Amino acid sequence: MTTMTETHNATTTSPSSPEAAQPARPRYKVTGLRVLRSEWAKLWTLRSTWITLALGLVFLIAFGVIAAAQYGSGSGLDDGGPGGDLSNADALGLSLFGISLAQMAFGILGVMVTAGEYSTGMIRSTLAAVPRRLPVLWSKSAVFGLVTFAVGTIGALVAFLIGNELVSGTAAELSLSDSGVVRSLLGAGVYLGLIAVIGTALGALFRSVAGGISVLVGTLMLVPNLTSLLPNSWEDDVNKYLPTNAGESLYSLTHDAASLSPTAGLLVLLGWSALALAGAAYRLVRKDA
Amino acid sequence: MIEAQQLTKRYGEKTAVDRLDFVVKPGTVTGFLGPNGAGKSTTMRMIVGLDAPSSGSVTVNGKRYDRHSAPLQEIGALLEAKSIHPGRSAFDHLMVQAHTHGIPRRRVEEVIEMTGLQAVAKKRAGAFSLGMGQRLGIAAALLGDPATVMLDEPVNGLDPDGVLWIRNLLTGLAEEGRTVFVSSHLMSEMALVADHLIIVGRGRLLADTTVQELVRQYGGDAVTVACDQPARLREVLSGPGVEITGEVGSDHLHVAGLSARAIGLKAAEHGIPLFELSSRTVSLEQAFMELTHDAVEYHGASTVDTPGRAA
Q1: d(CA A150, CA B55)
Q2: Could you report the average pLDDT of every consecutive run of 10 residues in chain A (289 residues)?
Q3: Which residues form a coiled coil (chain B) (predicted)?
Q4: How far is CA B291 from CA B21, B33, B85, in A?
Q5: CA nearest A147: which of A110, A93, A96, A201?
Q6: Which single residue of A98, B1, B239, B294 has CA 20 to 30 Å from B25?
Q7: CB–CB of B296/B202 below 8 Å?
């Protein structure tokens, strides 16, 4: 049906120019896949992507390895002081120690993926090419979310393999085939991927790198502390639904009453991502670019 | 083809674009003229769907811009503000846009060549000079081989070479049968390239006319003549193709369609003494100033009688 109206258009709009050889013009078309392809290219053609992804990967691996090395060298066992909480740790928890810093790098890059287009003016080119707008948001979040999932999973796996080696022979040692290990490593990737999506959505929602990053950092670092102001009976109920804590249930081996199950955690985290995306979509469609 | 119907954009109290009606036709260069702040850029942003009209509508080739399946093929736009990511190379900038439409790499290389960017195509676009940036914007506008090309103040910041290049490009595109819509706040620049003129002031349409028509309307090639018997002279001079205006009680008449020489001869023939006889050619610039000046007064003071074309 669309093809028919287009052909009709082409013939009616250019009656004054038979010599312009309109039929010879190639027929282009915007498709979802092509917008994805474009966003994929956009991501990799900026140096900041490579730098920030590398930074996130380094945080993830380095801090995990350091934590494991600490434990392996015995310091975590003896001193009962600041490092005392490592005593009943497992190789997985130790090697994923860097996740709280890595999530900042990935989340902030997510904000930059969208808000950066507004601060530079690139958004005008983007929306001129895809005036329906929403495919841009879906593609950006999908591309960056999946890239971060891949990088995060690889990072978590590498951190675990090295970290596990460092704690071999101790109580913390695990094997990839132990129950929950692969799920946790994948969970770490999924968590980071969804934080990346939330960052992307926040960037599109606030249209400002500074604004998006503030809200992201606030959500990931400040809000969990603020809940301690709540009455005790509420605190646990609220706490486990926060993005960071719901995420933690995805990538930790053990779960207690205060945390959600991995599946519930995933659903809650998906809910937060959907909420952020919905806000971003609303603003994108409703507000002038 | 661009068609605006009662196109309006309000920002709170302020009306940036006020019930604009116009049609931009294929095969000619249409100039979009107005002083700074007249609403030209806002209008262009609405044409490509970056801003939504408060009321009214605008279509590109018969459809709203966002309803087209290949928007970049319908209209290629260079907007006034920079629309690039400074960290991306010129080639990459064009390529990411090409991807959305399935435009081949060959076409990207083609527009780079057309705009003379070969030497800098792999450099970061953020380091470009104003002129280079403008060329990149034009390359992006031409990327989809669009039926309509729309450029907002394209000669801003260009050196004389660049200005000439743009002029030739615009007339070339129009000759190929494309719709060319160019904004400027400089009448002198428009006069060189545009056939048709859409003139706006304070968001309102002041004139939708041709260059010749505008000159004629604003007393171009008219003759001012003064004598003590204006009524008789009027009779003597009137004829087909001759237009005579003058205020009642004034000695002065403005005559269009006759040369000063012809008027002098006719007056002598009928024994009417003349006090003054001068031809005045109004430049486009003057006509433009007069038009937009009226618009400013029309909105500024409460009631200033603007004969003829205030709306």
Answers
A1: 46
A2: 40 41 72 97 96 96 93 60 59 93 96 96 96 97 98 96 90 87 95 98 97 95 84 82 92 85 95 97 95
A3: none
A4: 18, 11, 39
A5: A110
A6: B294
A7: yes
Query: In this complex, which of B87, B95, B144 lies closest to A47 when CB atoms are compared?
Result: B87
* Of the partner residues B81, B88, B96, the one whose CB lies closest to the CB of residue A38: B96
Note whether B183 and B33 are within 8 A (CB).
yes
Across the interface, whether the CB atoms of A127 and B52 are under 8 A apart is answered: no
Chain A positions with Cβ closer than 8 Å to B = 2, 6, 9, 12-14, 16-17, 19-20, 25-31, 34-35, 37-38, 41-42, 45-48, 116-117, 120-133, 288-289
CA gap B62, A8 in Å, rounded:
10
Considering only CB atoms, A13 lies closest to which of B48, B61, B92, namely: B61
Q: Which of A201, A187, A192 is nearest to A260 (CA)?
A: A187
Which residues, including other chains, have CB under 8 Å from residue A66's CB and lie 6 or more apart?
A: A97
Report whether B181 contacts B150 (CB < 8 A). Answer: yes
Instruction: Specify the pTM.
Output: 0.83
Please compute Rg for chain B using Cα positions.
24
Residues in A closer than 8 angstroms to B49, CB to CB, are: 127-128, 131
Q: For residue B55, what is the DSSP state?
A: E
First to last CA, chain A: 30
Residues in CB range of B31: below 8 A, 6 or more apart: B182, B183, B184, B190, B193, B194, B196, B197, B198
Pick the residue from chain B with its C-alpha nearest to A132. B66
A2 contacts B85? CB cut-off 8 A: no
Q: Among candidates B167, B175, B191, B193, which has minimal Cα distance to B283?
A: B191
CB proximity list for A263: less than 8 A, separation 6 or greater = none
Contact B150, B75 (CB under 8 A): yes
Give the residue from chain B lying closest to A115, CA to CA: B85
What is residue A209's predicted lDDT score, i.e. its pLDDT? Answer: 96
* Angstroms from A98 CA to nearest CA on chain B: 29
User: For the range B204-210, what are the long-range contacts, defined as Cβ-Cβ under 8 Å and sequence gap of 24 or more?
Assistant: B204/B18, B204/B19, B204/B20, B204/B295, B204/B311, B205/B19, B205/B20, B205/B21, B205/B22, B205/B311, B206/B34, B206/B291, B206/B292, B206/B294, B206/B295, B206/B309, B206/B310, B207/B291, B207/B309, B208/B22
> How near does any CA of chain B get to the CA of A269, in Å?
31
How far is the alpha carbon of A53 from chain B, nearest alpha carbon, in Å?
16
Low-confidence ranges of chain B (pLDDT < 50): 297-311
Q: How many Å is the Cα radius of gyration of chain A? A: 23
- AA letter at A28: Y
